């Protein structure tokens, strides 16, 4: 038989605290036998679309699009 989920005020405050300053992301709540046993927070950071704001491309280092194809040495 399915047990009803028990969520008291303490859990509601924990959930609200994890969601409070999140701008982009998700909160995964794991329930076992009608009780919350785990919460996982995944947060995303988004940046503008201009090439200067891309954290993967460092100055002085060519991007993957700018690199020449490697020749296969045998």
Automatic annotation (TrEMBL):
<feature type="region of interest" description="Disordered">
    <location>
        <begin position="40"/>
        <end position="74"/>
    </location>
</feature>
<feature type="compositionally biased region" description="Polar residues">
    <location>
        <begin position="64"/>
        <end position="74"/>
    </location>
</feature>
<protein>
    <submittedName>
        <fullName>YezD family protein</fullName>
    </submittedName>
</protein>
<dbReference type="Pfam" id="PF10055">
    <property type="entry name" value="DUF2292"/>
</dbReference>
<dbReference type="InterPro" id="IPR018743">
    <property type="entry name" value="DUF2292"/>
</dbReference>
């Amino acid at each position: 038989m399915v047990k009803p989920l028990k969520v008291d005020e303490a859990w509601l405050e924990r959930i609200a605290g994890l969601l409070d300053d999140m701008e982009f992301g998700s909160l995964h709540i794991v329930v076992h036998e009608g009780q919350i046993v785990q919460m996982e927070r995944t947060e995303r950071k988004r940046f503008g679309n201009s090439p200067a704001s891309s954290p993967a491309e460092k100055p002085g280092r060519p991007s993957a699009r700018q690199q020449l194809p490697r020749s296969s040495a045998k």
